[in-house]
Write a structure and sequence with these properties.
- By secondary structure, this protein is of the alpha/beta class.
- It has one domain: Nucleotidyltransferase, domain 5.
- It is built from six helices and six strands, in the order αβαβββαβαβαα.
- Strands 1, 2, 3, 4, 5 and 6 form a six-stranded mixed β-sheet that branches.
- Strand 5, helix 4 and strand 6 form a beta-alpha-beta unit.
- The protein is globular.
- The protein starts with a helix and ends in a 12-residue tail after the last helix.
- 29% of the residues are buried.
């Protein structure tokens, strides 16, 4: 995935998008107790669906066209900002602008991102002074990238039963996402135009 990303024109883009998404691995308490993922996964909350789930969170750093640059898989109850900073420490470069959602708000998080030589942008919260606005249209980019991975590339239907299997299946889907974006660049239609690959 990294090799493909580095050969893509979008790798040189100075804009990076970061988001996390739930990767549920069990639906019932009995399944959780019997799962080979017990001890690795955890309970987390999905604000967009207003529900709790058991499993993991996938943290995804992308270029604006959807090219995955780096990812991190962590238990759903792991501190989001700590996991994100671990990912950014190895993948974010000086001079880049990072766009995140409100969940990553915090002075310490912003200071650390700035210490990497990057600029952080995120939607304004209701309880703070206006700074960047809602960033609605830009935030839709990362949300649509995650939707492509979860729907077209069936990330939510991974079917993994072990940690090794889960990591492999997530990596497969992100590799497919990277290959699709790269192939579209070769065809002269950059971006995530994957409809033709559904048939």
């Amino acid at each position: 995935m990294t090799t493909i990303a580095r050969t893509s024109p979008s790798f040189c883009d100075r804009l990076r998008l970061l988001d996390s998404t739930p990767v549920p691995c069990a639906q019932s308490r009995e399944t959780v107790k019997r799962s080979h993922l017990a001890g690795h996964g955890g309970y987390g909350y999905c604000a967009s669906h207003s529900r709790f789930f058991w499993g993991f969170r996938l943290y995804l750093l992308c270029a604006p066209d959807g090219m995955p640059i780096a990812f991190e898989l962590a238990a759903a109850n792991a501190p989001e900002r700590e996991v994100a900073l671990g990912l950014l420490e190895r993948a974010l470069e000086p001079g880049q602008t990072l766009i995140v959602d409100k969940g990553f708000a915090g002075a310490e998080f912003e200071e650390i991102v700035c210490s990497y030589g990057a600029t952080l942008l995120r939607p304004d919260r209701a309880d703070e002074e206006p700074r960047f606005g809602s960033l609605g249209r830009v935030r839709q980019w990362i949300e649509s990238i995650v939707y492509t991975a979860k729907d077209q590339l069936s990330l939510e239907r991974h079917g993994a039963r072990t940690l090794e299997g889960l990591v492999a299946r997530i990596a497969q889907r992100l590799l497919a996402l990277a290959a699709g974006c790269w192939h579209n660049w070769l065809l002269g239609t950059p971006g995530r135009h994957f409809t033709a690959y559904d048939h």
